[in-house]
Amino acid sequence: MQAPNVSPVEMLSGNDSASERASGELTSPVSAFDGTQPAVANLNSPLLAALQAAATDSRDENIEILVNSGWRSAAYQNQLLEKAVSKYGSPEEAARWVATAETSAHVSGDAVDVAHFDAIGWLSEHGEKYGLCQIYANESWHFELRTDAQASGCPPLFRDPTEDPKMHP
Ligand SMILES: [Zn+2]
After folding, report:
1. I need a labelling partner for 62 at 20 to 30 A (CA). Which of 71, 88, 90, 124 fits?
2. pTM score, two decimals?
């Protein structure tokens, strides 16, 4: 099975209805400062503050950090998981890409998927300064806050989410 090079979120095409926005769905990348989007506004505030600080600094290098996906409702996460199971053919394979609502760091407001490879590249180089770390080798776009990263660096990557103990509560 070929690995996708886009966030699973991009597999869903949706209309920009109010209810979809309320679930955290984004039809196109948005600014880290767009407080009208629940996907951004519902992120945990330390993560959001770190992201906004990085987005401000990256502008000096003409890199715009945009959010492809942030906070998601449990219902939206489950919808993504269902789509992933049908795309990848089994729950086991889907689990490498999309977490359940119970385990997803997006549902708890602790994760952000960054749009565009230049911004992902900038954050993978500089994110540690803000506590923003990549977590999974197969999801370069997915960042979470690790507050001790400023002192001790980002933790080693998990190959994919199935290696992450927090996916197996
Ligand atoms: Zn993610």
Report:
1. 71
2. 0.88
Residue closest to 81 by CA, chosen among 140, 21, 9, 17: 9
Asked if 89 and 22 touch (Cβ cutoff 8 Å), the reply is no
45 Cα–ligand 1 center, Å: 17
Domain that holds residue 26: 8-167
With respect to residue 2, please indicate whether it lies within any of the assigned structural domains.
no
CATH of the domain at 161: 3.30.1380.10
Is 15's pLDDT higher than 60? no
Q: What is the domain count for the chain?
A: 1
Give residues whose Cβ lies within 5 Å of ion ligand 1: 111, 113, 142
What confidence score (pLDDT) does residue 24 get? 96
140 Cα–ligand 1 center, Å: 9
- Kindly list the distances between the CA atom of residue 119 and the CA atoms of 20, 24, 87, in Å, as whole numbers in the listed order: 26, 21, 27
Ligand 1 mean position, distance from CA 39 (Å): 12
Ligand 1 centroid to residue 69 C-alpha, Å? 7
Let me know: does 66 contact 47? Beta carbons within 8 Å: no
